[in-house]
Write a structure and sequence with these properties.
The complex is a heterodimer of chains A (478) and B (300).
Chain A lengths: L7 H5 L8 H7 L10 H15 L6 E4 L3 E4 L11 H14 L7 E2 L3 H10 L3 E2 L5 H5 L11 H9 L6 H4 L3 H8 L1 H10 L16 E11 L2 H21 L2 E12 L4 E12 L2 H15 L9 E13 L10 H19 L4 E6 L5 H4 E5 L2 H12 L19 E13 L6 E6 L2 E14 L11 E8 L4 E7 L10 E7 L2
Parallel strand pairs in A: 3-4
Antiparallel strand pairs in A: 1-2, 5-8, 6-7, 6-8, 9-10, 11-12, 11-16, 12-13, 13-14, 14-15, 15-16
Helix pairs in contact in A: 5-10, 9-10, 11-12, 12-13
Chain B lengths: L3 H27 L7 H5 L13 E2 L4 H6 L4 E2 L3 E5 L6 H17 L4 E6 L2 H4 L2 E2 L1 H7 L6 E6 L2 H12 L6 E7 L7 H14 L2 E7 L10 E7 L16 E9 L5 E8 L4 E4 L36
Parallel strand pairs in B: 3-8, 3-9, 4-6, 4-7, 7-8
Antiparallel strand pairs in B: 1-2, 9-10, 10-11, 11-12
Helix pairs in contact in B: 7-8
Classes of the chains: A alpha+beta (478), B alpha/beta (300).
Chain lengths: 478, 300
C-alpha cells in the first residue's frame, strides 16, 4: 500500500506521495491513514463543481482533483478577476478545503500555475513569462513523456518554448507540442463543461441569505420577469427551465420543469415551479438559507409573438398546455399520456401510452379541429371486438369448456363463478414469431346471464402447442 | 276540468324551469343578487356561456331528456356509480357519454385513472375506446397514484377552458372525497363550462354535489345486425338515483357505437334474455309537482 495524498501536516513531517505505507509508519508512527475511495473523491469534486457554478455556468472537471472554470464575461460581476479569485479561495477555505487557483488566458496556463505555482492572476499575455520556470509536468503531460524529457535534461518549460519544434515532436510526440501551444494560446482549447450551457440566465445574489418559501417565490418571479424581455427580443420561449439555489454551506438545490409549449410569461413559469414546490413538500431544505439564486433556460424553442384572439380558442389551448405542464410538474411528465396505436396483433402491445407533448397536439390538431365525422353511409354493423378495459396482466381463470377448442361454459374468476350465456369466437391471435415462449391465443367474447361481458382467451393450441391449455381473462367489455 | 289547463300549466312549468336555470347560472357566475331579472342574466357576456355544443348533453331520448330539462347539463358535475369493483358497465356508460360529448365538442377530454386500476379493474384500452366510438386520440390520459392526486387533477382540469370534459375514476370511498370536495368540483365545472364526470367504482351512495347520479348495472347486450345469438350492442340498466332538477327513475339503454346514439330497450319485449332488472319506471314530472318548481338558487 502506498500513499496517494497527504495533508499539510504530513507533508511537513517529510512524507512523500508514492511512499510505501509501512515506510511512512516507520517515520511517523502516529500516522492516520485512510484507504483511498475514488468514487467518494469524484462525488466530492462533483459537489464542489456544482458549488463553483455560482461563478460561471461553464464548469469542467480537470482530472480527478481539479476544476476548470470558464469565467469569460463573468469576472466583472465579482469586481474583477482578482476579487473573484480571492472570493473563491476564501469560500473554499471556509468550507475546509485547501485549494489553489489561477486565472490565465488559457486553461493550460491556468492549470500549470495553479498546480505548480502559487494562486495568482496572470495578466493577459503574461503566460509565457510565468511558464518559463515551471517544471515540464505542468504542461499536463503523461508521466512517461515527462520522464523521457527529464532523461535528456529537459526539465522546465522554458527550455522548449523557443526550441525547434520538429525534433521535439518527432522525439516526444505531437502531444507535447499541442499541450505547449494550448498553454501559450497558439492553439485553441475547448472547455467541455459538465452540464450544457444554458441559453439564458438570470441571477440574484443576496447580502442576507433567504430561506422562506415566499421569498424564494418572489425571487423566482423577479428572475422570470427579467428573462421575459430577452426571450421576447429573440422570439424564443423556454421549454426546459432550471432553478438553482446555492445554499450558504455549499449545497446546490436544482429544480427543473419542462413546458410542453415554449413559454416566457413569468406567471406561467411561476405556476410550474409552484407545482414542483408543492410536490417537494418539505424536501427543499433551506438550512441556513440560500445566498444565490439562478434561473437558467436550458432549452429554448422558437415562439412567435402571440396575439390574444377574441374567440378565445387560443386561450383555451394555452390553458390546456398550462394544465398539462402543471400536472407534469407535480406528478411527473410521464403521468400525462395519450394512447397511441402500434403495429402489433397482440392486444397488450397494440396500444402504447406515450407521454403527451406539444407535438401530439400539433399532429392531432387537424383531426381534433373538426367535430367527429359522422359515417356517411351505415357500414355493416361490426360488433365491438376489443374491450374497454384491459388487464395489465391477464388474470388466470379456471374455465370449463364443452370441447377442447370450444368456448368456455363457465369459469371462475376471483372466487366467483360465471355461467356463460352467450359466447362469440374464437378470434385466433398468433404469437409474434420473433418472440419465443409465446403461445397462440384463442380469444372469446363471452357474456353471462347478468350481462357481464368479458374477454377470455385460451393460451396454446390444444394438442399442438400444449396438452393442458390455460385460460385467462384479459379484458372487460362495456 | 277543461283539457286546456294542464297544457297551460305545463308551459308555466317549463318557463319556471327555464328561469330557474338562468338564475342559478347567473347567480353563480357573478354573484348577482337574487332580484336580478332573467333578462339581465341573459344579457351576460357570451364568453361565460359554453362556447361550443350548447348547454346540454342530450341522450336524444325525450322521456329521459325531459327529466333533466334537456339532457345532462354541461357545466356541472355528474356522478356515475357502480357497486362492482371490476365492472365494465359503468366504464361503458361513462365512455358513451364521453363519446357523445366528443361528438358535439371538438376540444379534448381528460380521463383520470388510478395506476393500480390496471391490475384491479383493467387499464383503459385505446383500441377498445376507438371501437366503442370514442376516438382515443381525443383522450388525454392522466395516471395518478393516490385519490388525493386524482382530485387535484380533477379540479385543475375542470378549470381548464381548453377541455370539453373531464372524467375521473375514483375507487371506493377515499376520505378526501367528501361533500366539500364534491362541491368544489361542481363549482369549478359551473364556472368553466367543462363537464365533470365522476366515475365511482365499488362505491355506495354518498352525499355529493353532483347534479345527477347514475347507478349502472350490467344487463344482457342488445341485438346487432339481426344476429340474436351474438353479443350485440352494449346495454345497461341505469337508475337515475338523484336528479337535482327533476324526478328520478330507471331505464334500460343500449349503445349504438357506430351512430353514437342511445336507444331505449323496452324490457317487456326484449326477446333474447330474461329481464334481470325491474322494468323501466320513468316518472314524468307530475302536474302536481308543478307548484314546487320555482326559480331557486342551488344549495351549493
Amino acid at each position: 500500500m502506498r500513499l496517494v495524498a497527504l495533508d499539510e501536516t504530513a507533508e511537513r513531517a517529510g512524507l512523500n506521495r508514492g511512499q510505501a505505507l509501512t515506510d511512512a509508519r516507520a517515520m511517523v508512527p502516529a500516522l492516520d491513514a485512510v484507504e483511498e475511495d475514488g468514487r467518494a473523491d469524484a462525488r466530492l469534486l462533483a459537489t464542489i463543481a456544482d458549488w463553483a457554478e455560482r461563478y460561471t455556468p461553464l464548469v469542467a472537471l480537470a482530472g480527478g482533483d481539479g476544476l476548470t472554470l470558464d469565467i469569460t464575461g463573468c469576472a466583472h460581476l465579482f469586481d474583477g478577476e482578482r476579487a473573484l479569485l480571492v472570493d473563491l479561495l476564501a469560500r473554499l477555505q471556509a468550507q475546509g478545503f485547501a485549494a489553489r487557483a489561477a486565472i490565465a488566458d488559457t486553461p493550460g496556463a491556468a492549470a500549470a500555475v495553479a498546480r505548480f505555482g502559487t494562486s495568482s492572476v496572470i495578466p493577459a499575455g503574461g503566460a509565457q513569462a510565468r511558464l518559463h520556470k515551471l517544471p515540464m509536468a505542468a504542461l499536463r503531460l503523461d508521466t512517461e513523456t515527462v520522464a523521457a524529457m527529464d532523461r535528456v535534461g529537459l526539465k522546465t518549460i522554458g527550455q522548449i518554448i523557443n526550441a525547434p519544434r520538429a525534433p521535439l515532436a518527432a522525439r516526444f510526440g505531437s502531444h507535447l507540442i499541442r499541450r505547449l501551444d494550448q498553454a501559450l494560446a497558439r492553439q485553441d482549447e475547448v472547455i467541455n463543461p459538465r452540464r450544457p450551457a444554458p441559453s439564458f440566465i438570470a441571477e440574484r445574489r443576496f447580502a442576507e441569505p433567504i430561506a422562506r418559501e415566499d421569498d424564494i417565490a418572489a425571487v423566482l418571479s423577479s428572475l422570470a420577469t427579467s428573462l421575459a424581455a430577452p426571450l421576447e427580443k429573440y422570439g424564443k420561449g423556454a421549454r426546459l427551465i432550471e432553478f438553482s439555489l446555492f445554499r450558504v454551506d455549499g449545497f446546490v438545490a436544482r429544480i427543473s420543469v419542462g413546458a410542453s409549449r415554449p413559454i416566457r410569461a413569468p406567471r406561467l413559469v411561476l405556476d410550474l415551479f409552484r407545482e414542483k414546490f408543492a410536490a417537494f413538500g418539505d424536501a427543499l431544505d433551506a438550512g441556513f438559507g440560500f445566498d444565490t439564486a439562478r434561473l437558467s433556460i436550458i432549452t429554448v424553442a422558437n415562439a412567435g409573438f402571440s396575439q390574444i384572439d377574441l374567440s378565445g380558442d387560443a386561450a383555451g389551448e394555452a390553458d390546456l398546455d398550462g394544465l398539462i405542464d402543471r400536472i407534469g410538474a407535480r406528478l411527473g411528465p410521464a403521468s400525462v399520456q395519450h394512447m397511441a396505436p402500434r403495429e402489433s396483433h397482440l392486444p397488450e402491445r397494440a396500444v402504447e401510452g406515450r407521454t403527451w407533448t406539444h407535438a401530439d397536439v400539433e399532429e392531432g390538431s387537424t383531426a381534433t379541429r373538426k367535430a367527429l365525422p359522422v359515417p356517411a353511409m351505415a357500414p355493416a354493423a361490426d360488433p365491438i371486438d376489443r374491450p374497454l378495459r384491459l388487464f395489465t396482466r391477464p388474470e388466470p381463470v379456471e374455465a370449463i369448456a364443452a370441447v377442447p377448442d370450444g368456448p368456455p361454459v363457465r369459469f371462475r374468476w376471483r372466487r366467483v363463478v360465471f355461467q356463460i350465456a352467450r359466447a362469440e369466437g374464437p378470434e385466433r391471435i398468433a404469437a409474434e414469431w420473433w418472440r419465443d415462449d409465446d403461445l397462440t391465443r384463442d380469444y372469446f367474447r363471452v357474456e353471462d346471464a347478468a350481462g357481464h361481458r368479458f374477454w377470455l382467451y385460451r393460451e396454446g393450441l390444444y394438442g399442438r402447442e400444449t396438452s393442458a391449455p390455460r385460460w385467462f381473462l384479459h379484458g372487460v367489455f362495456a | 276540468m277543461p283539457a286546456g289547463i294542464p297544457s297551460a300549466r305545463d308551459g308555466l312549468v317549463r318557463l319556471r324551469r327555464r328561469i330557474a336555470e338562468i338564475e342559478g347560472r347567473g347567480v353563480l357566475l357573478n354573484q348577482a343578487p337574487r332580484s336580478q331579472s332573467a333578462l339581465e342574466a341573459a344579457a351576460m357576456p357570451p364568453a361565460l356561456s359554453p362556447r361550443r355544443g350548447g348547454t346540454f348533453l342530450p341522450f336524444d331520448i325525450p322521456r329521459l331528456d325531459n327529466l333533466m330539462g334537456g339532457g345532462l347539463r354541461l357545466n356541472a358535475l355528474h356522478e356515475i356509480r357502480t357497486e362492482a369493483s371490476s365492472d365494465g358497465a359503468a366504464t361503458g356508460f361513462a365512455a358513451a357519454l364521453a363519446a357523445r360529448l366528443a361528438g358535439q365538442d371538438d376540444r379534448p377530454l381528460v380521463w383520470i385513472i388510478q395506476a393500480m386500476a390496471g391490475r384491479e379493474a383493467g387499464h383503459l384500452y385505446g383500441a377498445g375506446l376507438d371501437r366503442f366510438g370514442l376516438p382515443s386520440r381525443r383522450v388525454i390520459l392522466v395516471g395518478v397514484r393516490k385519490p388525493g392526486e386524482a382530485l387535484w387533477v380533477f379540479e385543475e382540469a375542470l378549470r381548464c377552458r381548453g377541455l370539453a370534459g373531464v372524467l375521473a375514476e375514483i375507487r371506493r370511498h377515499p376520505r378526501l372525497l367528501d361533500l366539500t370536495a364534491s362541491r368544489r368540483l361542481a363549482l369549478r365545472a359551473r364556472e368553466s363550462g367543462v363537464m365533470g364526470l365522476l366515475l365511482r367504482q365499488a362505491a355506495q351512495a354518498d352525499p355529493g354535489a353532483a347534479l345527477t347520479r347514475w347507478l349502472v348495472t350490467s344487463r344482457p347486450a342488445g341485438i346487432l345486425g339481426g344476429y340474436p345469438a351474438g353479443i350485440g350492442r352494449p346495454a345497461w340498466h341505469l337508475i337515475l338515483e338523484r336528479n337535482r332538477r327533476g324526478a328520478t327513475g330507471a331505464i334500460d339503454l343500449e349503445w349504438d357505437h357506430e351512430a353514437r346514439t342511445f336507444a331505449e330497450i323496452d324490457t317487456a319485449t326484449a326477446t333474447h334474455s330474461r329481464p334481470v332488472a325491474p322494468p323501466s319506471v320513468l316518472r314524468p314530472p307530475s302536474p302536481s309537482g308543478a307548484g314546487t318548481v320555482v326559480a331557486f338558487r342551488d344549495a351549493s
